[in-house]
Amino acid sequence: MELECIGVGEAFEPQLGNTSFLLHSETNLLIDCGYAVPRNLFSRNYPPDLIDALYVTHFHADHFFGVPAMVYRWQEEGRKKPLTIIGQPGTKSLINRTIDLGYPSCRSKLDFELKYLETTDPVALNELSLSFAQTDHSMKNYAIKITKGKSSIGISGDGGLTTKTRDLFQDCTVLVHEAYTYDRAIQGHTYALDIVAFAKGLPTLQTLALVHIQRDERANRLSEFTALQKDVPFKLLAPEPGERIFLKT
Description:
By secondary structure, this protein is of the alpha/beta class. It has a single domain, classed as Metallo-beta-lactamase, Chain A, CATH 3.60.15. 25% of the residues lie in helices and 26% in strands. The chain has eight helices and 14 strands. The chain is globular and about 55 Å long. It starts with a strand and ends with a strand.
């Protein structure tokens, strides 16, 4: 498996795009598609049928407002393969309304099916096992763990750690977690020192990627984030768009 960083920024980051990841496997899964994601995704010139499924962590605009543009462009480029959209209850209604608001005639023109799977329970997506846990955020956000073989990737979406996400991430090989600030607690988010302290206790962790860093924190304190590498036994990243994390399965 490979996890490609499509974007790594917070909602209003001017250059790094909204946080979004593309898992390359037999089944290709996109995690989140905010309003700044389509431009980054389209620049890679992937074929319109490449992505099999989309998982939406929550309903803030920087995590799903890019869906209308993505879907419409794929229609123009001749996509035929169904797209499975996975999320918490309410996902189908909200995404359909968002597509209709952006491009009112789009859904009636589609030559491919939008298939919805609304769940917060563990589910199989072909060879991938998906499980979820709610984070501490201002809107219901469900972190995801993706397991294939002996490897697991945890992706937080937005929000602070909870008892349930701590349990979810216990056996992760890779953890991609928001770290909105370096050392300041902000309601509904987490900070780098907190997530690094948690990650030190994960017995199988090989890579920790800190993303969704507040734009001024990243501009002024990035060296402090990356300097945390010296205190941990795993690889620590503050990745850039286009960076890939490789996993053996």
